[in-house]
Specification:
2 copies of one chain form a homodimer.
Chain A: H1 16-26, E1 35-36, H2 39-45, E2 48-53, H3 63-72, H4 76-81, E3 83-86, H5 90-101, E4 107-112, H6 117-125, E5 129-133, H7 140-151, E6 154-155, H8 162-181, E7 188-192, H9 197-209, E8 214-220, H10 225-232, H11 256-262, E9 268-272, H12 274-288, H13 298-304, E10 314-319, H14 326-333
Parallel strand pairs in A: 2-10, 3-4, 3-6, 4-5, 7-8, 7-10, 8-9
Antiparallel strand pairs in A: 1-2
């Protein structure tokens, strides 16, 4: 970005108007997921905790927002060419679903060969062509670009795209409106963060709507690249070899566009352990009767564990997705809290 | 009713206007729970299945609607006296919660001594005084009336009250509006049925809003009193000694008011087994990532098992609650579908 060449348009932040347009675009197609609170939990925390139940979204995660907005904006000629995306999980399903709903004939998704069989099956179920690659030896971004070039497909990035971010930002818009209807202006919003697209979208939406709300990124231990990058003021990657059950929030490093949005706007990064994520999944079941996947529980966990104080404040957290297999979910329900 | 004495006002059906007033009363306090659908499931069933995720309601069930509406309608003098209700589960929690939210000083709930500890604890957590009784030797209705008389409390019945039914009916209002926003007018609505209050409320609401929608009651085997009563044209009780894991839908027989509303309006009763309810809980997890309790899964189960055909039609089902303990939920997730 600093070599004198202009930043490509898609790598510049969306305007607030684009976010509002995205909100109109998703209406009636996507779910306005509820914003919930529990008096019992509020009493325990000494404040108000609002949770956005985004696991109830189409395809089970917030990714449907960005995918729908991006694919809706394709011209009819682009639609006739088709799209390609790479993802091991939630973005894959979202793009496949949106492609089918919009009648896009060719949707190609590059998925690692060791992705859960159910996720591959579900992506195929939405009519997508799944190209499997070896996670150990192949670069998924390069593969995505190659498929796009060879077959004339439009590449749909998981986060570094202003239209994808504008779609994700509609979640921030909804949280603000729903909180207002509950008589609340959050002091803080905590978002589960991988590449940073949802976090960036929310930061942009709230900057206009409720500038007093501080936005925080939550990550699992070992994949706290955004927390460290925010502290350092530059994009840092994760050390190789880390593992976590939080599969949905494991990006190699913050995105280019997302970090440029997040760096000057976020209140910081919050980091939780896998055990804390599992405990948060159990509390979500007990207090809200909500299914949450491990990676989507890290923002809630950060609030429960006091990484971000709730006492005497209003804190909103996003439960970003719910694509968890029964075995892992049973493990969470057996966790002692 | 046929002995010449006039029917008490509270045992006559609410008007549509009262249902609309109840809807205004709950706004901003209760959750507008989402109406969801799954393309995968629709493809499998060959039609459109819309599910109302009412387990996300305050206190985890639709009972919060009736409790809130009834308690909101108390005069300030009545509020100063306090209220009493009897229930082993969802109605207990709903009345305790609504009483606390409305600042009603005395809320007494008669609960069986063998009710789940967590439900008793939660009811107490909302500030209610819990009076335990022996399910084997005491009559809960008589106990409720006695507590009301002795302590000057207002009795809040679980279903046979026009204000409770008007509150429950707001769910029917919401389903209709949400379906319309999704471009759908349901051919049928299936409601989990115990005393019949929610079923009656929905039947009244839909009669005005979408008279082409047929309403059905779903029940578990052994507690199919409404199905048999509808077929016989008179209120029939369940045979003693039946057991079911569907604890939330076990009324001894249809209510007086609810049956008078349901008998001329319903399309019939649908009956499912405990195993079918468990399978439906697992499908709700897989397709919608929703927690459902066994008794709240019977309407969904009826549609999944073909008790009510979905092919080439639009069928809406209500998942009425989600107050299930982790052990039972893990059992459902281990069920083969």
């Amino acid at each position: 970005m600093n070599d004198g060449t202009p930043t490509p348009w898609h790598l510049t932040p969306p305007t607030f108007q684009e976010i509002e347009e995205a909100a109109r675009r998703i209406r009636g197609v996507l779910v306005e997921t509820p914003l919930l609170e529990s008096e019992c939990l509020n009493a325990r925390l000494g404040g108000r905790l609002l949770v956005k139940a985004e696991g109830l979204q189409r395809t089970g995660s917030f990714k449907a927002r960005g995918a729908w907005n991006r694919l809706s904006l394709l011209s009819s000629e682009e639609r006739s060419h088709g799209v390609v995306a790479f993802s091991s999980g939630n973005h894959a399903q979202a793009v496949a679903w949106a492609g089918q709903r919009l009648g896009i004939g060719t949707v190609v998704i590059a998925m690692p060969s060791d992705a859960p069989a159910a996720k591959i099956e579900r992506t195929r179920g939405w009519g997508a062509e799944v190209v499997l690659y070896d996670r150990a030896t192949e670069d998924r971004e390069a593969l995505g670009r190659r498929l796009a070039a060879e077959r004339g497909l439009i590449l749909v990035p998981p986060y570094d795209d202003r239209r994808v971010i504008a779609g994700a930002a509609t979640l921030g818009l909804e949280v603000t409106q729903q909180a207002k209807a509950m008589g609340a202006v959050p002091d803080a919003l905590v978002v589960c963060c991988a590449g940073g697209g949802l976090t960036a979208g929310c930061a942009l939406a709230l900057e206009t709507l409720t500038p007093t709300t501080r936005v925080f990124a939550a990550e699992p231990e070992g994949f706290d690249d955004t927390a460290r990058s925010l502290a350092a003021g530059m994009r840092l990657g994760n050390a190789p070899g880390a593992t976590s059950i939080c599969d949905a929030v494991q990006a190699p490093m913050p995105g280019i566009l997302t970090f440029s949005i997040n760096a000057p706007r976020l209140g910081g990064g919050l980091v939780v352990s896998d055990t804390e994520a599992l405990q948060a999944m159990r509390v979500a079941f007990e207090e809200f009767r909500l299914v949450v996947e491990p990676g989507a529980a890290v923002a809630f966990a950060a609030a429960l564990c006091g990484r971000l104080p709730v006492a005497n404040r209003i804190v909103a957290v996003v439960l970003t997705g719910a694509n968890v297999d029964p075995g892992m979910y049973q493990r969470a329900l057996s966790t002692i809290t």
